[in-house]
């Protein structure tokens, strides 16, 4: 049997599959009857072996013996190889080989199968760098720029083939979008954004000239906008993105392109960039953009351009990050507007759990910096509305989480001028425990942070001996409850605050020393005797007891086993409704 016949026999099963799926578009995923995975996962081992053997033999014969018939079915190879799940470096080499074969063939000689394989190769090149470093190259890897140029080279080859008279070579909108996407994700920043914008402009010009195959659609404009939002080396990148958005609106309203319908997904990347920026005008500009979306919806009837909950949350996040003294008030106004929309039956605009988190986070400066005694109360009321909204309809978008409870507890712990503030902090923790235990909300499972904050609130209590004793009882009960949890344990901060509570709230010296001894033993055995706990213990006990417990050693000389579980990271902080610190939980 000849080598060519052997190859033909080995690929006959694959050719049968190709004929079965020939009725679909060249850009469609493989049909369910295909032996290869359309998701890019490895195909069954026997079929992968067939593909490997076929392709390996094809390479050997073509490179060494030159016995392959011409032209070899590259479209079949592209479909089989790209979906075979072979090693990336082997796939890259063969992608380059197939691409070179198509691009270097004489004009006007591509077969229909070769033409149909071009979009498959373009898609493979565009996705080749996903999850493997983006635009960065490396040993044996292609850079984002090289991938983009490979995709654009394939598109140019199809365009040139069409001009040479091949009726099967038709470059479509999807092909241009693949080129734009490969540039947008190449990591070339402003250079890539410029190229994407040029391609989009050319597409619109060609469509205006009568070429309906390249009419820019929603995805085309989305790619161009996102390309500019990635151009971090260009100071005016957001302005360029806005220009494309305005141009998109103009060509649609002028009926120059009925597929260029502005959509909320086109505005979102720009809003996110403003929210992430440090510009003072970012909140105002993002609000103006939000109002522009509403005008398009109400005045021009472009329903898809209307803002949704996510858009409003992004604008609120922009206000939160700004640190403006009026940010809390403005965020609250936006929140109330969203809630009014909900009451009027608007499905697209309604507060969700993230909205409530942002509103509660916006109160932090008032509580922690300006010592606003009403801040904790405002946050508690907002949390109560979140709980009521979830419990009344089991709306999953309103499911509260641990972070929002920890925030409110922390606010009460820091509002020491309010009578019985520790009881209010404990009350929020009790609601959290009930939400988790009785209503099955896993996201709000109490953690060591909430328990520690309640203990801290108790330890900072002022007033009569009776009031202090009451606060200590709450601190003790909270500490014991934490110790009994199966998923969390007290940490060095918890012990430090308990020592503080012992020193400030217990007036009987014998009781204070006795409790401190027991607490020290627990702290030592848990390896949580941090510097804070050590200092608070020194303040709580007499010199004789301290000598007895530590043997007269300084903190630096204490055994490492006593402080083996001490964490030295900074305390928690919140931003945009999320806990954002290297120590986002107090852990044992």
TrEMBL record:
It comes from the Eukaryota. Coiled coil: none annotated. Residues 1-15 have a biased composition (Polar residues). Keywords: Repeat. Residues 1-43, 560-588 are annotated as: Disordered. Residues 23-43 have a biased composition (Low complexity). PANTHER family: PENTATRICOPEPTIDE REPEAT-CONTAINING PROTEIN (PTHR47942:SF63), TETRATRICOPEPTIDE REPEAT (TPR)-LIKE SUPERFAMILY PROTEIN-RELATED (PTHR47942). This is Uncharacterized protein.
